[in-house]
Design a protein that fits this description.
Helix content: 25-40%
Number of strands: 9
CATH architecture of the largest domain: 3-Layer(aba) Sandwich
CATH superfamily of the largest domain: Periplasmic binding protein-like II
Distance between the termini: 55 Å
Structural class: alpha/beta
Bound molecules: 2-acetamido-2-deoxy-beta-D-glucopyranose
CATH class of the largest domain: Alpha Beta
Oligomer: single chain
Radius of gyration: 21 Å
Shape: globular
Order of helices and strands: HHEHEHEHEEHEHEEEHHHH
Largest sheet: 7 strands, mixed
Amino acid sequence: MRLQTLLACCFISVTLVSGSTPRGVGIETKPLDELYKDAIAEGGDLIVKAGGDEKNQRDEVIQAFRERFPKINLNLTVDLSKYHDSVIDRSFNLTGKAGADIAQLQTLQDFVRWRGEGKLLAYKPAGFDHIPDNIKDVNGFYVGTNYFLFANNFATAKLTKAEAPTEFLDYLEPRFKGKIVSTYPNDDDAALFQFFKIVQTHGWEAIFKFLNQDVQFVRGTATPIAVMLQSNNSRSVTFTSGPGFTNGSTGFFQQLPRDDFSHIVIWAQRAAIFKTAEHPAAAKLFLNFLLTKEQQVANGGFSVRDDVPPQAGLKPLSAFAGKLDPPAFERFMLNRPVVERFKLQFEQLIGTAQGISPLDDDL
Ligand SMILES: *[C@@H]1O[C@H](CO)[C@@H](O)[C@H](O)[C@H]1NC(C)=O
Ligand SMILES: *[C@@H]1O[C@H](CO)[C@@H](O)[C@H](O)[C@H]1NC(C)=O
Ligand SMILES: *[C@@H]1O[C@H](CO)[C@@H](O)[C@H](O)[C@H]1NC(C)=O
Ligand SMILES: *[C@@H]1O[C@H](CO)[C@@H](O)[C@H](O)[C@H]1NC(C)=O
């Protein structure tokens, strides 16, 4: 009986999806130089809204794009994904247009909704066939462009690698009291998902013990690293940030757990071109650029392309099956009632997120 219901549900949804598929959307075959010419001919402007919590977070991509395509006037603004999408939705309501050509955001549920509302352009950039189906829309309405991984980080000036916590239960040890800095889970849904998974694995008792560790909660997922790097405080560890794997020369070091990945999250940031895009040729150029092998290598960590190896020293993502599960975050994000309830659990426990926008806090 349950199986029949399941099959009926899935059969219907498959039918609906294929029924609304614009047939014949092939993968882009034009080389970048031709896409560049198209974008110049179109006028040379491009408006991108990218999710993030520091104004300079996408500077490397902006610089690389401008160097390669100097005649394109790229206007890329970074803001929290949950605010970018609010502005986009309001713009649709007020003007009938997105107000941007491309959105590249953490709010994975928006892409599914916008697709359903007919707001996205079906487009498959070069390399689309090298991106796993579980991080893209198979009809090309959106695509995962880069993985974000929030993992264990410690300040190398304050702790040695051997002392640093890697498993969630390590953070509950008395020696880390007053040492932890964390993003408010009720301010960022990726951090929220980490705490959701911790509760699933370790129960609320573990959360109560964590909160008894005199944790400093901050806004933004880059802020914990900035706090850790200051020499005038005791904060030395966080797991709600994803600054990337370095050799420690940056003052912090990122580590994966040995066994318990309950407090780790990975997802692929999604990008989509809006149907109302005023600069569709430039938008296509940008999306193709993001997925070039060069840009994928420049991102570090794991590439979304199956033909680009991970950063040196990292095993391929497939070696972490059952531990790093990119589509799990999308399932969580789509379940808004659970997200909402869980957010309020933390608001009740630690209060509303305090402080100005992490983009303006100078940290
Ligand atoms: C860039 O685009 C934003 C809208 O996303 C707009 O508010 C801003 O004025 C633009 N900046 C420039 C320099 O055109
Ligand atoms: C804009 O929002 C108003 C109020 O919710 C709604 O009545 C209207 O249909 C919306 N317009 C568009 C174009 O979505
Ligand atoms: C540490 O120094 C920074 C400036 O570098 C300052 O903003 C911050 O308030 C100081 N923190 C403490 C705990 O003194
Ligand atoms: C660490 O990485 C930085 C930047 O990638 C590099 O400049 C430096 O030489 C490296 N240091 C060591 C000890 O490998």
